[in-house]
Write a structure and sequence with these properties.
With about 350 residues, this protein is an alpha/beta fold. The protein contains 16 helices and 13 strands.
Length: about 350
């Protein structure tokens, strides 16, 4: 990789990470400005990415990112990758939904388009003007432009029940689970069948079969990687989760070579034992949620995850917190990611962990 001369070393380090092996320190993805440089402002808002993708204006997105990576120090196992997404409802958009966003907003959303699951069967919109075909074209172009220099991330798919929630409306879907569960079971069977075709389309368009894959989680894999999740799970009971969602999550994790489960919100903790029992999940990102203490104050949860044989991805500790508290966790089952102000600070963090692991 042009921007990471020691990529082969990083590649081996991630191989050890997935196998719960440690070389000389925990995996750390730390970035900073290069010495004497400042990082240009990003133009990668959902608004820009969605509109550039739809209009075929790929160069403005990628040129901006290339200017940024020229000024970034990628320390430890940090790799350069372009984080492309058109919003958390993009999977539902692939099923025929219409995305909306605004320049001042930091997200996008979809107009609910399912009125009654009795009259709707999840299907992919494969038309030339559809979102999936537009996204594929972006990946095909971006993967050739980026070749050997940086990765294009695997999409943050928000599949399974999250896709049905976006298509229907979260509140209405909650009622449907109680009022017409047989219709939701059928819809879930159908939407689960769409995961592999969507993944394969993006995986091949982005030539990840040649270079490996990385998601918005900074974890690289030689084969198929993605972040798996079901944010809708925080709204339902254990019984409903096990009936409608659990097998879908297991299915996605089993399809992938490696995965991180994005565990969002303390309201979803009721499902933790069920998630930990899925053997195919490799790593968990615990996100306490808005207004909650940061993960450094949830050591009991982090230790429980590791005790169950999973790694943890910790994204919100400061360098001082990493240095002071990393020994409380199993070093072979943790990945830290952080951004610091200077390259010297990044190198000090890495050296400290080498000396003290």
């Amino acid at each position: 990789m042009f921007c990471k001369e020691d990529f082969r070393t990083d590649q081996k380090a991630f191989g050890h990470f997935w196998n719960h092996e440690i070389v000389d320190r925990p995996i750390v993805c730390v970035t900073s400005p290069k010495r004497g440089m400042s990082i240009p402002e990003s133009n990668a808002s959902y608004y820009n990415m969605l509109n550039c993708c739809l209009n075929g204006d790929y160069d403005s997105l990628l040129a901006n990112y290339e200017r940024r990576i020229d000024s970034i120090f990628f320390g430890g196992e940090a790799l350069p990758y372009y984080e492309f997404a058109i919003g958390p409802d993009q999977f539902a958009a692939f099923m025929g939904g219409e995305l909306e966003t605004r320049p001042e907003m930091h997200t996008s959303w979809i107009k609910s388009f399912v009125k009654d699951f009795a009259e709707y069967t999840p299907r992919l919109d494969l038309s030339k003007g559809g979102y999936l075909e537009k996204v594929k074209k972006f990946y095909e172009y971006a993967s050739f432009r980026a070749e050997g220099r940086y990765f294009i991330q695997m999409l943050d798919l928000h599949s399974n029940m999250d896709a049905l929630s976006a298509a229907r409306n979260p509140q209405e879907l909650c009622f449907d689970l109680l009022d017409c569960p047989e219709q939701i079971e059928r819809a879930m069977r159908e939407v689960r069948n769409l995961y592999a075709p969507v993944y394969e389309a993006v995986f091949k368009a982005g030539r990840m079969d040649k270079y490996g894959s990385i998601g918005w989680a900074p974890t690289y894999c030689d084969g198929k990687f993605a972040v798996v999740q079901c944010d809708f799970a925080c709204m339902i009971s254990n019984e409903l989760f096990r009936k409608f969602v659990l097998e879908a999550v297991r299915e996605e994790a089993a399809y992938l070579d490696r995965c991180v489960y994005h565990y969002d919100g303390k309201e979803a903790l009721r499902h933790l034992d069920d998630i930990l029992a899925i053997e195919e999940i490799d790593c968990i990102q615990w996100v306490p949620g808005d207004g909650q203490p940061r993960t450094v104050e949830w050591m009991d949860i982090l230790k429980k995850i590791q005790k169950a044989g999973k790694s943890v991805w910790i994204y919100d500790w400061t360098p001082d917190e990493i240095m002071c508290r990393f020994k409380e966790l199993e070093p072979n089952k943790v990945l830290f990611s952080t951004h610091v102000s200077t390259q010297d600070e990044a190198e000090r963090l890495l050296e400290y962990l080498r000396r003290n692991t």
